[in-house]
Amino acid sequence: QNGALTVMVGGQQDVFDRASPMIKHFAKAVTRMGESGSGQLTKMVNQICIAGLVQALSEGLAFSEKAGLDSKLVLDVISKGAAQSWQMENRGDTMVDDEFDFGFAVDHMRKDLGLCIEQAQQVGAQIPVTKIVDQYYAEIQAMGGARWDTSSLIKRLR
């Protein structure tokens, strides 16, 4: 709706060239990743990375809370260094505030991670952390969080 998507495309160059102008109406970036299937595989890489980032951010913030730190101040400080990420910038405060009724649903992430795990087996890739995070998301679903934002992983740690 606001043209902020990053789109990864697989397919023939001539088809990409024809479709690209339309895709740019709803995307800030459109990249042809290679032949058919390459876009989907790239999206899997994206989801694997996000799953690990959200789990690490959840652990860091839960640690901060248990240690008695001001977690919003911690976020302000560490967001200026190497730990900075889109997840931190866009979900850190809501994670601290325990607000998850928006964003990308856990159900959707579990579907995506299931596809990643299946594809990893097919190509011989090892993704042990992703498998663990997928199980953590299953715990969130069991807590009633199927529609919560993926940043709700922190709820397991509180």
TrEMBL record:
Alphabetical list of Gene3D superfamilies matching this protein: N-(1-d-carboxylethyl)-l-norvaline Dehydrogenase, domain 2, NAD(P)-binding Rossmann-like Domain
**Which residue intervals define the domain 6-phosphogluconate dehydrogenase NADP-binding in the entry?**
2-34
Pfam families (alphabetical): NAD_binding_11, NAD_binding_2
Q: Which residues form the 3-hydroxyisobutyrate dehydrogenase-like NAD-binding domain?
A: 37-156
For this protein, the record's InterPro entries field holds: 6-PGluconate_DH-like_C_sf (IPR008927), 6PGD_dom2 (IPR013328), 6PGDH_NADP-bd (IPR006115), HIBADH-like_NADP-bd (IPR029154)
GO MF terms here are: NAD binding; NADP binding
* Protein name listed in UniProt: 3-hydroxyisobutyrate dehydrogenase-like NAD-binding domain-containing protein
> Could you read off the lineage of the organism from its UniProt record?
unclassified sequences, metagenomes, ecological metagenomes
